[in-house]
């Protein structure tokens, strides 16, 4: 399930959902791993998207 949570986090970022929309999988230690994987997927996708954006230039 961990790879599923990771991919779900990536899809959430592609859909412009915020990091605060992370699902609550449960209260067990295993569930916390799922949440961490979702956030890792979200952050990885965010980094990839940021790298593709053109650099902003100074307005002056």
From TrEMBL:
Location of the region described as Disordered in the Swiss-Prot/TrEMBL record: 41-60
Domain of life of the organism encoding this protein: Bacteria
Biased composition range(s): Basic and acidic residues: 41-51
Protein name as catalogued: Ribosome modulation factor
Source organism of this protein record: Pseudoxanthomonas suwonensis (strain 11-1)
Native organism taxonomy: Bacteria, Pseudomonadati, Pseudomonadota, Gammaproteobacteria, Lysobacterales
